[in-house]
């Protein structure tokens, strides 16, 4: 076999192995050590498959988020943090594909990062097809004397399998006797068989496509060779857009000045204005405004014709004014959310957007230090690193435990406690909730204790694939306080 066919066969073998491993590990939720093991296997296969360009030079830094965020699955149990970990891993894998195909990581524009993500996603979705059809010479894989017959048999089996499955499924659904006969002959639970087959094929498919893009893909060369004509804007058009937007931001800040920083005093003297309306409505709209400004400024800078240094200076001034006004609005948004949390307590829907605002603040400062100083190529990597650091900080903060601790502390201050919401928090919050039980009123304590016992019963032996430190700690605390929890949880029934 030639080198290309040999590599293609190795990709298929590795993908099938990871497909089987993915079905064995990842079919069980919530993800814990199983996600860590599977991600480690994927990275190991990528390193050993035959091409190290993705993780050489600047690409070696991609191994750090791949390692840390895959290991983090055995740390925290929060579903929101798991989603952020998956996103962080997907971005790192996409950049590995970009790097393997000759792209840059440290000094790359936003568009190159986007192109790398699209290339990686395209390969994961359909990359297996060109690998099977054009890049593997199947006649070289099979013996030349029997290749014709073997290919004919293989084609027949491939064509017959879906037909047999469709008609067999219809006959099984149509007649209970036939269904029983099939089950006795095959001794197969079709629902279980289907789920195993589907998950194996799914994981094998996306892994094969990813490895194909990593090891033999050339999509970046095609993308860079095709450069569409993009219209540009002069400083007059750009100045009008940014100048009017600056005026709008300034008008909003001036008109809403007493609303932005009036806080509790404003709510108290304004008829019909509640804390919920004042804080909740204003916060999310201001977050959306802050999030939209960044792509707008990046797009305006990209389209601007850099004909004269004066034009760049005008853009910097207008963009700088907009960022300063935006920081005032962001501070007001955080103040609104702080007021809302003080009155109604803390939730994930209030914590994570606030953290996102913090990331935006860092990114805007980085925008000033890079894009506005003529170093646009450094912006994307810095923004990505800031995102990775935010996810790491959230792991150290332990959001669900922080929420439980913050809300239970409200009870001591004579404020309300949302027991029903507390029962939806992950295992990370269980130790804090158990320690807070003595301070809760009986109905809230009963609700929390009953939920903890139901979700992490002392006698249950969980699947080892779902193990994480957060879940292990929750079970340890429940086991140590089982008697107290049962007494508190039963109080409602006795009453």
List the helices and strands and how they pair.
Layout: H1 3-26, H2 33-48, H3 63-71, H4 79-100, H5 110-126, H6 128-135, H7 138-141, H8 147-174, H9 176-186, H10 190-215, H11 219-225, H12 235-255, H13 257-269, H14 275-303, H15 309-344, H16 348-370, H17 379-397, H18 399-412, H19 419-422, H20 430-436, H21 442-455, H22 469-480, H23 482-494
Helix pairs in contact: 1-2, 1-10, 2-3, 3-4, 4-5, 4-10, 4-17, 5-10, 8-9, 12-13, 12-15, 13-15, 14-15, 14-16, 15-16, 16-17, 18-20, 21-23
User: Are there runs of 5+ residues with pLDDT below 50, and where?
Assistant: none
Name the helicity range.
over 70%
Radius of gyration: 29 Å
Distance between the termini: 78 Å
Helix and strand pattern: HHHHHHHHHHHHHHHHHHHHHHH
What's the β-strand tally? 0
Give structural attributes.
3 domains; 495 residues; 23 helices; flat; 76% helix; mainly alpha
How does this model look, in words?
The chain has 495 residues and is mainly α. The protein has three domains: 228 residues, no CATH class; 163 residues, no CATH class; 95 residues, no CATH class. It is 76% helix and 0% strand. The protein has 23 helices and no strands. Helix 14 packs parallel to helix 16 and helix 16 packs antiparallel against helix 17. It is flat. The mean pLDDT is 87.
